[in-house]
């Protein structure tokens, strides 16, 4: 999702994976899915995102995997990434550095996570509403959780639409078109300049996977192509964003909440296969 489309990059090599390599990415994806489930179960009011990061780091070690995030240093970033998770709360869309600030009832949490296992990467993300504990822990705010739930559900539906569209023989533009139909149809904004990406030995490979594009345009999807699809939706309906002072965290420009969902998938003869499932 850090891929910003530069026309020159479009000519770079796209590596197709063998069935055995796809199985290896699926093994990494199972680790990602299992750890994300553990993070989801731990996330609750009073828990610090730094604690979620520590939990994930322990589970990575236990699985014999390696964080794809920690130490990652793309050109646009101020320094190497410090965590194993991205934890983006409320108006943070993506790339939130796990903070010590405790989660609160009603926070909208997005968690992004990738590992390498035996040299192969898998990348996934989910969004959730922080809840749990007693009624007494409710902050009593009038904020409606149903708006947040709808944003999360629509983000998941946009991801699923993108996956369903990713059939062999169709074009990449059909994927972005399917995602945007769902997101725009519900009146949401989408994070400008960001989308999904190829996945393989590296977390970010060619091709770029747009979250919005014209149908019947672009790369023809072939069996063996492995990509991460990751819609990022803004409740406020606008696409603009800003970077935090930390240089990583991306926030909606209007302060509205955002949600993110991601799976790594393979295009196969039989259709899309999700690799980041338990
Ligand atoms: N998982 C993100 C993506 O989908 C990348 C996170 S950036 C990192 O592209 F620095 F945290 F790794
Ligand atoms: Co990604």
From TrEMBL:
Binding, a divalent metal cation 1: 112, 123, 262
InterPro entries (alphabetical): Creatinase/aminopeptidase-like, Pept_M24, Pept_M24_MAP, Pept_M24A_MAP1
Peptidase M24 domain ranges (all copies): 24-269
Keyword Protease among record annotations: yes
Record EC number: 3.4.11.18
Pfam family of the protein (one): Peptidase_M24
SUPFAM superfamilies cross-referenced by the UniProt entry: Creatinase/aminopeptidase
GO molecular function: aminopeptidase activity
Binding-site residues for a divalent metal cation 2, renumbered to this chain: 123, 197, 230, 262
Entry annotated with the keyword Metal-binding: yes
The entry's keywords: Aminopeptidase, Hydrolase, Metal-binding, Protease
Top EC class for this record: hydrolase
UniProt-listed CDD domains: MetAP1 (cd01086)
Catalytic reaction list: Release of N-terminal amino acids, preferentially methionine, from peptides and arylamides
Superkingdom, natural source: Bacteria
Cofactor: how bound: Binds 2 divalent metal cations per subunit. Has a high-affinity and a low affinity metal-binding site. The true nature of the physiological cofactor is under debate. The enzyme is active with cobalt, zinc, manganese or divalent iron ions. Most likely, methionine aminopeptidases function as mononuclear Fe(2+)-metalloproteases under physiological conditions, and the catalytically relevant metal-binding site has been assigned to the histidine-containing high-affinity site.
Family matches, as Gene3D superfamilies: Creatinase/methionine aminopeptidase superfamily (3.90.230.10)
The protein's required cofactors: Co(2+); Zn(2+); Mn(2+); Fe(2+)
Residues where substrate binds: 95, 204
NCBIfam families from the UniProt entry: met_pdase_I
Annotated function: Removes the N-terminal methionine from nascent proteins. The N-terminal methionine is often cleaved when the second residue in the primary sequence is small and uncharged (Met-Ala-, Cys, Gly, Pro, Ser, Thr, or Val). Requires deformylation of the N(alpha)-formylated initiator methionine before it can be hydrolyzed.
Family classification: Belongs to the peptidase M24A family. Methionine aminopeptidase type 1 subfamily.
Record text on subunit structure and interactions: Monomer.
Classification via PANTHER family: METHIONINE AMINOPEPTIDASE (PTHR43330)
Protein's name in the database: Methionine aminopeptidase
Organism the protein comes from: Pseudonocardia xishanensis
Gene: map_1
């Amino acid at each position: 999702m850090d891929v910003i489309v530069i026309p020159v990059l479009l000519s770079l090599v796209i590596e197709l994976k063998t069935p055995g390599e796809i199985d290896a990415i699926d093994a990494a994806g199972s680790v990602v899915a299992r750890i994300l489930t553990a993070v989801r179960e731990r996330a609750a009011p009073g828990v610090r995102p730094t604690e979620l990061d520590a939990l994930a780091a322990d589970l990575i070690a236990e699985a014999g995997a390696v964080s794809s995030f920690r130490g990652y240093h793309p050109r646009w970033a101020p320094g190497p990434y410090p965590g194993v998770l991205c934890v983006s709360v409320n108006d943070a869309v993506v790339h939130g550095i796990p903070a010590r600030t405790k989660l609160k009832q009603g926070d909208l949490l997005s968690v992004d996570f990738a590992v390498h296992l035996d040299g192969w990467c898998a990348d996934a993300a989910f969004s959730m509403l922080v809840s749990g504990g007693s009624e007494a822990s409710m902050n009593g705010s009038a904020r409606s959780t149903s708006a947040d739930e709808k944003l999360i559900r629509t983000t998941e539906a946009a991801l699923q639409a993108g996956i369903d569209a990713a059939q062999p023989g169709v074009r990449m533009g059909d994927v972005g078109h399917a995602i945007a139909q769902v997101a725009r149809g519900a009146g949401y904004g989408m994070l400008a300049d960001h989308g999904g990406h190829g996945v393989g030995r590296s977390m970010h490979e060619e091709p770029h996977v747009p979250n919005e594009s014209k149908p019947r345009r672009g790369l023809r999807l072939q069996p063996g192509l492995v990509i991460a699809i990751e819609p990022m939706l803004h409740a406020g309906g606008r696409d603009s964003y800003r970077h935090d002072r930390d240089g990583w965290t991306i926030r909606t420009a209007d302060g509205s909440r955002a949600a993110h969902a991601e799976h790594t998938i393979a295009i196969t003869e039989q259709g899309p296969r999700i690799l980041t499932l338990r």
